[in-house]
Amino acid sequence: MNRFVVISGCSGGGKSTLLAELAQRGYAVVEEPGRRIVRAETENNGTALPWVDLPAFLRQVIAMALADRDAVRTSDDWVFFDRGIVDAAATLQHLTGEPMLATLGHAHRYHPRVFLTPPWPEIYVQDPERRHGIDSATSEYLRLLEAYPALGYDLSLLPKVGVTERADFVLETLGNRRSR
């Protein structure tokens, strides 16, 4: 969908903060599926957690990402996603060898421009939903640097600047206008 814009990249790189800024400016945003699943699994003593059963977790992320897309399909303006299906599919393919990128990446398209947050150790923090370290986050980022272009997406690396400037960068790159 041409109005569905992915903000992806390194964990702890400021994606959620950027999405909050875009929401404040009146844009629709979709929270990262992984964080929602971690909260739900933790509350329900589930095992589909990245540190318990990563493949099960990733399958739930993919299912939620597909449902998220469906839930906003009628929006006629930009919708910003904190990560996309490609993120989970790339990791699942890396773990299991299943051709997830070819299967999901081509069938469920986003805007051709994807914004990536580079590793930013100075702001990286672990929390109850992000237990992995910066090295793991950087490895994930490097996979995404390959996965998105392999599916025909153009990447824009987000500058390491304040959130207001980052949001301006995203909107200016998209043409500084509503998608309508």
From TrEMBL:
This is AAA family ATPase. Residues 5-166 form the NadR/Ttd14 AAA domain. Pfam families: AAA_28. It comes from the Bacteria. InterPro entries: NadR/Ttd14_AAA_dom (IPR038727), P-loop_NTPase (IPR027417).
